[in-house]
Amino acid sequence: MDQQEPRDLEIVVIDDSEVVREQLRRAFAEAEGLHLVGLAASGDEGIEMARSLRPDIIVLDEATSALDPTSQDTLMELLTKELDATTIVSVGHRPELEAFHTRKIVLERHRGGAKFITDLRLRQGRGQRLLERMLRRKAAA
C-alpha cells in the first residue's frame, strides 16, 4: 500500500505592516512543513485570498485593530463561517475576539522576546453565547 507523504500546511497571513509581512515571508521560506500561500495587507484582501486559496491556517496579526467593533465581528464571522475547516490564529487585544476562538494563549513582552504565560481553553459555547448577545445588541440598535 502506498503511503502518501504528508503535505505542508498552507498558511495565509493578514498583517497591515509591510515590514512584518516581509519578515514572515522570509521566515516561512525556511520553515519545514509550512507553506506560505498568501500575504495580505488588509482584512478585505485577506478574506478574498482565503476564500480562493482555502488555507489550513489563517494568521491575523492585529488585523482587526484598525476596524470598529462591528466590522471586526463581521470579518471574524465571515472567516469562521465560510472557512470552518481552517484554523484561525489571531493576535489581538480586544476581548470580543474570544467569541470566535476556543483557545487563548497569553504572551508577555520580555527582554529577548515574548514569554509564554498561559494557554486557556475557552469554555465551549461561551464564545457563541457572547457572539449571539453582541449580534442581538447590534440588531436592536
Fold and architecture overview:
- The chain has one domain: 3-Layer(aba) Sandwich (Rossmann fold).
- The protein contains four helices and six strands, in the order βαβαβαβββα.
- The protein is globular, with a radius of gyration of 16 Å.
- The protein has 141 residues and is an alpha/beta fold.
- The protein has a four-stranded parallel β-sheet with strand order 2-1-3-4, sandwiched between helices. Strands 5-6 form a two-stranded antiparallel sheet.
- The mean pLDDT is 80.
Q: Topology of this protein?
A:
Blueprint: E1 9-14, H1 18-30, E2 34-40, H2 43-53, E3 57-61, H3 69-82, E4 87-91, E5 103-110, E6 113-121, H4 126-140
Summary of the model, kept short:
With 141 residues, the protein is an alpha/beta fold.
Per DSSP E runs of 2 or more residues, the count of β-strands stands at 6
Task: For the largest sheet, list the strands in their spatial order.
Answer: 2-1-3-4
Runs with pLDDT <50, length 5+?
Answer: none
Please identify the structural class as seen in this structure: alpha/beta
How large a portion of the residues is in β-strands, by DSSP E?
25-35%
Question: What is the residue-averaged pLDDT?
Answer: 80
* Radius of gyration from CA coordinates: 16 Å
Main β-sheet description: 4 strands, parallel
What overall geometry do the principal axes of the alpha carbons give? globular
H/E series: EHEHEHEEEH
- Tell me the CATH topology: Rossmann fold
Classified by CATH, the class is: Alpha Beta
Overall CATH architecture: 3-Layer(aba) Sandwich
